[in-house]
Amino acid sequence: MIPDKAPQEDVFHCSEDLKKESHIPSFEKYKELYTRSIENPDEFWGAIAKDFFWKTKHTGCFLDYNFDVTKGEIFVKCMEGATTNICYNLLDRNVHERKLGDKIAFFWEGNEPGDDLTVTYRELLQKVCRFANVLKSQGVKKGDRVSIYMPMVVELVVAMLACARIGAVHSIVFAGFSAESLCERIIDSQCSLLITADGFYRGDKLINLKLLADEALQKCRDKGFPLKTCIMLKHLSKEPEAAGRQSPPAKRACPDLEEKRKVKKTRPVPKVPWNPDVDLCWHSLMGGAADECEPEWCESEDPLFILYTSGSTGKPKGVLHTVSGYLLYAATTFKLVFDHQPDDVYWCTADIGWITGHSYITYGPLANGATSVLFEGLPTYPDVGRMWQIVDKYQVTKFYTAPTAIRLLMKYGSDPVQKHNRKSLKVLGTVGEPINPEAWQWYHGVVGEKRCPIVDTFWQTETGGHVLTPLPAATPTKPGSATFPFFGVVPAILNESGEELEGPSEGYLVFKQPWPGVMRSVYGNHERFEATYFKKFPGYYVTGDGCRRDKDGYYWITGRIDDMLNVSGHLLSTAEVESALVEHKSVAEAAVVSCPHMVKGESLYCFVTLNDGVAFSQALEAELRKQVREKIGAIATPDYIQNAPGLPKTRSGKIMRRVLRKIACDEKDMGDISTLADSSVVDELFRNRCATTV
Ligand code: WTA
Question: What is the pLDDT of residue 427?
Answer without folding.
Answer: 98
